[in-house]
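#struct-queue
[09:14] JT: dropping the first one here, sequence first, then the structure tokens:
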Amino acid sequence: MSEFVLRAGTAADAAAVLALNNASVPHVNALDEATLAQIVAMSGHYTVAEDAEGILGFVLCIPSGRAYWSENYAWFGERYDAFLYLDRVAVHSRAQRRGVGRALYDDLHARSRGRWPCITLEVNLRPPNPVSDAFHLAMGYE
């Protein structure tokens, strides 16, 4: 696999990010163009991993205090005064187990330090995703 870079997501990435998101269902929920644009507009952290062939992965996070309709986001809002909610992350099948996910999370952690007291997320139990469970445990998530 060729090297990749991380960079801030832009409007020009929308089609590739949408396709990657929807290819990652059921591990994330499907989106349409308008919903993705709304999530991006309220995001506090939007990063893509890219190589010469295109987008390899992305992470989208929403800070506390936004008018986000997610029940999971609301759950964290009821329990934490300030947080950054990792709404969705996806890595292209050609890049899985090649360090892209870890790089996206390491970048997120580095950029979040001092800005938000905690990063929150949830993982789906149905269907089971033991690879995601192991990854998040290894990254220090409970």
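[09:21] JT: and here's the second one, same format:
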Amino acid sequence: IHRLARATSEGSPVRIGRSKAGRDWVHGDDVGAAIVKLLASESLRHRIYNVGSGLAPTFDDIVNLFEKQGLVITDD
């Protein structure tokens, strides 16, 4: 995603492999914030926590969002 964002902001074309695989994309800052909240809790109800949005957009979905912002995909 970082490479797509950089290419979009620079106006550079990018070559990618498309994928229909879905993933629950999460930003490192959001994971950090979740860990801070867990560490600050007086007690934990579970032994394991999953940090995510609960959504699984495909890589193609993400690329399509960047294309709407001007990202150019190339085959070279």
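[09:30] RK: nice, looked through the second one.
[09:31] RK: Residues 19 and 59 are 6 Å apart (CA to CA).
[09:31] JT: good to know. The longest helix spans residues 28-40.
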